[in-house]
Amino acid sequence: MSSKKRILFIATEISPFLELTEFSEILNSLAIKSNENDFEVRCIMPRYGVINERRHKLHEVVRLSGINVSVDNDDYPLQIKVSSLPNARLQVYFLDNDEFFKRKFIFRDENEEWFEDNGLRSVFFCKGALETVKKFGWPPDIIHCSGWMTALIPMYIKTAYKKEPVFSNCKVVYSIGGETFDETLEKDFIRQANIHAAIKPKDLEPYKKGDYESIIKGGAVNSDAIAFATENIDEKIVKELSKTRGKKILKFQGYDSDLTEYFELFNELVP
Fold first, then answer.
1. What percentage of the chain carries pLDDT values higher than 70?
2. GO MF terms on file (predicted)?
């Protein structure tokens, strides 16, 4: 049995598959360097319709597909595809569903109109990612979440998935990158996000407003560590979250960092 620490990256974007912000390249480097620094690494992200399956050599993982993800009393089929980071023996798993990710746009349509189901897409992705890890049977020591689409995962780990053996000993890092939005998630978002009886109103409270600031704060306060991954974060948010008790805080070290600070954080969380 491998003695390597296991780290799972769950991300909105990872270069070269999707590059919304500079953080996609940092994640690419962080995953590869983690792999080179004796971590066992896996990555999960959405299979947005803009990702070219032929160019990136995606193929379906039949043994993992076939999961139905139940959200808001509806079942949605989850298809899982896989590719590798270029120049690295490192697998990236893509979560796909025709209703949520087949469209050839990410969060806005061709007229730059915000998709009315972005909140539901986020719930599906977060729950789908955790169900995929259960099917892996691969207990991570660290889950590194990045992007607002992943913000429910730290809360789900503490509530709905608290008693799942695969997550029983993991620590969660939440990275706040450069991607933002000015809109508000749909009014049903909080109800949709309540995927399990173990989730109480107080657990959903940080996310209640449904705006960008509330969503990332929800992800941050439910994590074991917060990483500021860009200089373009509202100073008010940085100051507020930096005062959060019981959290390890990783300040932004610049885009030319060698990422040593992340490995120090990972090893501090899981000695």
1. 99
2. alpha-1,4-glucan glucosyltransferase (ADP-glucose donor) activity
Q: What is the pLDDT of residues 82-122, one digit of tens each?
A: 999 988 889 999 999 999 999 999 999 999 999 999 999 99
Parse the chain into domains and list their residue ranges. Answer: 5-45+99-269
Helix and strand numbers (H, E) in the chain are 10, 10
Cα 119 to its chain centre, rounded Å, is 14
Q: Could you tell me the end-to-end alpha-carbon distance of the chain, in angstroms, rounded to an integer?
A: 18
Average pLDDT taken over every residue of the chain: 94
Paired with 239 in beta bridges are: none
Pairwise CA distance, residues 68 & 74, whole Å: 9
What pLDDT, in 10s, does the model give residues 156-200? 999 999 999 999 999 999 999 878 899 999 999 999 999 999 999
Phi-psi region of 115 (alpha: psi -120 to 50; beta: other; left: phi over 0): beta
How far is it, in rounded angstroms, from Cα 87 to Cα 154? 31
* Closest to 157 in 3D by CA, of 224, 240, 257: 224
Considering only residues 229 and 185, tell me which one the structure prediction assigns the higher pLDDT: 185
When the candidates are 3.40.50.970, 3.40.50.620, 1.10.565.10, 3.40.50.2000, the CATH number that belongs to 5-45+99-269 is 3.40.50.2000
Burial 150-181 (b: 16+ CB within 10 A, else e): bbbbbbbbbbbbeebebbeebbbbbbbbebee
